[in-house]
């Protein structure tokens, strides 16, 4: 049964002739999204192959959606589900992403909006295990450990350096770069500072519905440094914020973390880990964009590669821990800056 048939089967036979189904662009995953138009309104249908194989009671989208909602984070309502076909029916929160709104706001408006988003981020990062979700279950059983960080670094090597940019680096250079990436990953594994992270907290995963931010694509949430999600938002591959605003918002995030007793870092430590985490996060994003372009054949992400690479040089110049990796990456960074 294909996706359209699965969606139609969810409705009563008498209703099927009255609905319209239109494919909409999804994220960089195997999930498929459709807008279903009914006489009473619209909903979003998601077909996720992983839902078919999962225990519905432990399926990350549902469990994490419920966790966020219970803690006051606005997420789409779950309207229905069919485990056997991998179908989820979700509240339609429109098409306006933060990415779209950011281009139309003046300086004061964008500052207010991003402060509001960071308030939501702090709410997420304040969430702790409770009676329903223990620290032995996702998302609290998952974290950005060395293996996870290196998986993302290696993904970049495989699909960016060996794939999209193939020929720029020889095996010896790649091996040296892997060693540097491993050392950087070691610096970022600081469980004493870990909080809950959305993991993909950028402008395409924040919808504006009736002028209220709605958080989507949260199913990969896990523990990590609080800077991980802040980097995703402020060093976004889709929206480039004014550098002075970025600095202001970094201070705002740090102050909220301290006020809510979510970190024991000094501001200097926060800024250092922000740059180190930003380097890793942007490297990871480039790997994803290159994979989508060369393996999946989805060229919509290709324009994001160069702007994301452009973020790397300031981190490298600011932090001695990144110097060796930066030198090894010079053929790539120089090529994209010409």
Strand order of the largest sheet: 1-2-3-5-4
In total, the number of domains comes to 2
Q: Tally of extended strands?
A: 9
Which structural category do the helix and sheet elements fall into? alpha+beta
- Number of helices in the DSSP assignment: 14
Low-confidence stretches: none
DSSP helix fraction: 40-55%
- Compute the CA-based radius of gyration: 21 Å
Mean pLDDT: 93
The CATH fourth-level homologous superfamily of the largest domain: Aminoglycoside phosphotransferase (APH), C-terminal lobe
CATH class of the largest domain: Alpha Beta
Question: Could you give the order of the helices and strands?
Answer: HEEEHHEEHHHHEEEEHHHHHHH
Please tell me the CATH architecture of the largest domain by its name: Alpha-Beta Complex
Largest sheet: 5 strands, antiparallel
Residue fraction in strands: 5-15%
Find the CATH topology of the largest domain: Aminoglycoside 3'-phosphotransferase, Chain: A, domain 2
N- to C-terminal separation? 49 Å
Overall geometry: globular
Brief characterization of the structure:
With 338 residues, the protein is of the alpha+beta class. The protein has two domains: 89 residues, Phosphorylase Kinase, domain 1 (2-Layer Sandwich), CATH 3.30.200; 240 residues, Aminoglycoside phosphotransferase (APH), C-terminal lobe (Aminoglycoside 3'-phosphotransferase, Chain: A, domain 2, Alpha-Beta Complex), CATH 3.90.1200.10.
